[in-house]
Amino acid sequence: MATPLEGSWALVLGVSSGMGLAVARQLAHEGVNVLGVHFDTASGQEKAATAAEELRSLGVQVHFHNANAARAATRAELVPLFRELTGDRGIRILVHSLAFGTLVPFIAKDGQPGLSERQMNMTLDVMAHSLVYWTQDLHAAGLLRAGSKVYAMTSAGNAKVTSNYGAVSAAKCALEAHVRQLAVELAPSGVAVNALRAGVTVTPSLERIPESAELVERATRTNPHGRLTRPEDVGDAVALLSRAETSWITGNVIGVDGGEVLTA
Question: How do the domains of the chain map onto residue ranges?
Fold first, then answer.
């Protein structure tokens, strides 16, 4: 059964740009109050503040926090605050859209060092393991309840190789494994957990990939819809899936790519 989202609460990790911001915008249009965590320098903070005001203009409550979402101290500070803000409603939607990872080859080449242990651990911790830690803490605080939805952003790069994407690819594989495990463990609580596999989408994260121009050209040429995936496509998917009360759609990698993976 589909239910309106108006008045519910969402938490978006990585809310200040790209897919995270697009999801927050779409949910705000649906009447969802938005909690957000982002980690930005001064210029990024200004953009985040502007985005927060834009969402508030839609008549919803918006609380953005500039903090490192991968740190335990951030969760320890914010989870009790989120519990106070949401009251007895809890968090209906959790979106994990953290896209901060190291983009270098594993093997040293042309005088450039290969991936370090610190860089590998950081990439996996931010882009994969933090999903588990946030879900653990939110569930322990009683904020994830029957009907809650958890979404993690993955990509087709989990199974494809480019010279600079190795650590991020490993993180996406780990992320999808975490989604499956959380889906099974949270099923008795009525909480659904899924990964969304967006197609190639022009975002600040994509533009940091050295091979991004090649990825964009190929996806534009081969996507059955004749265009790239847009952040708004992901926002639409989150809103659509979140209206369902059921937790029967869980543990999946759901393509939000217009069929791109079928022809790329």
Answer: 9-255
Q: What is the DSSP string of the chain?
A: -B---TT-EEEEETTTSHHHHHHHHHHHHTT-EEEEEE---HHHHHHHHHHHHHHHTTT--EEEEES-TTSHHHHHHHHHHHHHHHTTS--SEEEE---------SS-BTTB----HHHHHHHHIIIIIHHHHHHHHHHHTT-S-TT-EEEEEEEGGGS---TT-HHHHHHHHHHHHHHHHHHHHHGGGT-EEEEEEE-SB-SHHHHTSTTHHHHHHHHHHH-TTSS-B-HHHHHHHHHHHHTB----S-S-EEEESTTHHHH-
Tell me the pairing of strands 93-96 and 9-13. parallel
The answer to which of 24-28, 51-55, 182-186, 207-211 has the lowest mean pLDDT is 207-211
**pTM exceeding 0.90:** yes
Reduced to 3 states (helix: H, G, I; strand: E, B; else coil), residue 34 is strand
| CATH H superfamily, domain 9-255 | NAD(P)-binding Rossmann-like Domain (3.40.50.720)
pLDDT grade for 1, boundaries at 50, 70 and 90? low
pLDDT digits (tens, 9 = 90+) for 99-131: 888 989 999 988 889 999 999 999 999 999 999
Residue type, 29: H
